[in-house]
Specification:
single chain; about 180 residues; 3-stranded antiparallel beta sheet; elongated; disordered N terminus
Length: about 180
């Protein structure tokens, strides 16, 4: 790798091609539209896609794009979502494409959820790994309803520091109001 000019543009010789990474240190995408572990950055980390660009998603084929294959398929990463997730401090727990569950993990490796205030607040992780609002998504044995349940009326201010929920649900799928996983009482 060599540095060129005052901008600090790095060049990498890769299979006889010169791939240019524009900008200062910290840019995480390549100018050739490739991404993932197959196409590492000069520091060895996997290349991402420009979250503010026209092709913000990395497909399982390790190329940036903006189609369903690039943004919503199993193994794809939408870097617009990743950027917003980071900016939210990790508090946003759902994806734009309404995918949810174990197969569609968040940047912190936790299962993605459904928007608790949205039109489709429930996840059927085993059926289609999508958010919905019917009994197939909200009421089945393997379903998870992310709508916030009110604490029972006997709760006091001091109980709000508990690490468990009054409804008896616990784990990463049952977060506390602060977003942390609820423990079992």
């Amino acid at each position: 790798m060599q540095k060129c000019g005052k901008l600090g543009i790095a060049q990498l010789i890769f299979l006889g091609q010169v791939i240019v990474f524009q900008g200062e240190t910290g840019v995480k995408w390549r100018s050739d539209g490739n991404c993932g572990y197959t196409y590492p950055l000069p520091d060895g980390s996997p290349a991402e896609c420009d979250p503010d660009g026209e092709k913000p998603c990395c497909s399982w084929l390790d190329e940036c794009g903006n189609t369903t294959v690039h943004c919503s398929s199993y193994g794809s990463v939408n870097y617009t979502f990743v950027k917003e997730w980071i900016e939210s401090g990790g508090k946003r727990r759902w994806r734009y494409d309404m995918k949810c569950g174990e197969e569609y993990r968040l940047p912190d490796h936790m299962p993605s959820e459904c928007d608790p205030d949205g039109e489709n607040p429930c996840c059927n992780d085993l059926w289609e790994s999508e958010c919905g609002n019917t009994d197939e998504y909200c009421s089945c044995e393997d379903c998870k309803d992310f709508r916030v349940t009110d604490l029972d009326e006997t709760s006091t201010e001091s109980e709000s520091t508990n690490k468990w929920r009054s409804d008896g649900n616990c784990g990463a799928w049952n977060p506390l109001p602060d977003g942390s996983p609820a423990e079992c009482d």
